[in-house]
Specification:
single chain; six-stranded mixed beta sheet; 37% helix; 189 residues; 6 strands; Aminopeptidase; alpha/beta
Length: 189
């Protein structure tokens, strides 16, 4: 059984793509690194995917989906960060009402950093095929007031990234992915 965390690496038409979507890749990698460094071993596999081809119609994600859809029943949740890594407020979530209630309980653990909101839907080109076929999905929600200042511009460089805000985003990703991966049962569909 798999909990998938992800970002993509293909928005580098100009600039460096550090915020879009390097930030999503960074926090996904960091989540797994933190869990490993803490010596935690969840019941389910945590899998990191760094998507390609999102800007070209999601061809990388579609290829991955085609290769793994026969095991769709074993995917517990698919998570994608693709809206920068500014101060997090919580998660967008797509899934059953029962699963949403469970996610609300999990995200409440992040009250010390004020990242406890659960929004109506998850967004993400790369996880859309999974959610369409009933796999619960989550996307990072954060303060995107400055997102379009840098999105697909020469200004999208590492100087956009605030290490403290990225750490908070990584905390959200780490807590949610680990707790779901370590629950007794998968999220209800």
């Amino acid at each position: 059984q798999v909990v998938l965390v992800s970002g993509h690496l293909d928005s580098w038409d100009v600039g460096q793509g550090a915020m879009d979507d390097g930030g999503g890749a960074f926090i996904s990698w960091e989540a797994l690194s933190l869990i490993k460094d803490l010596g935690l071993r969840p019941k389910r596999t945590l899998r990191l995917v760094l998507w390609t081809g999102e800007e070209q119609g999601g061809v990388g994600a579609e290829q991955y989906y085609q290769l793994h859809k026969e095991n769709i029943a074993n995917f517990d949740i698919v998570m994608e960060s693709d809206a920068g890594t500014f101060k997090p407020s919580g998660l967008g979530f797509t899934g059953s009402a029962e699963a949403r209630d469970m996610v609300r309980e999990i995200i409440a653990l992040l009250q010390p950093i004020n990242a406890t909101d659960v929004y109506d839907t998850a967004d993400g080109t790369d996880i859309a095929p999974w959610m369409r076929d009933g796999v619960p999905g989550a996307s990072l929600r954060n303060d995107i007031n400055k997102y379009f200042w840098f999105h697909h511009s020469q200004g999208d460089t590492m100087t956009v990234q605030d290490p403290n805000q990225m750490n908070l985003c990584a905390a959200v990703w780490t807590v949610v992915s680990y707790v779901i991966a370590d629950m007794e049962d998968m999220l209800p569909r």
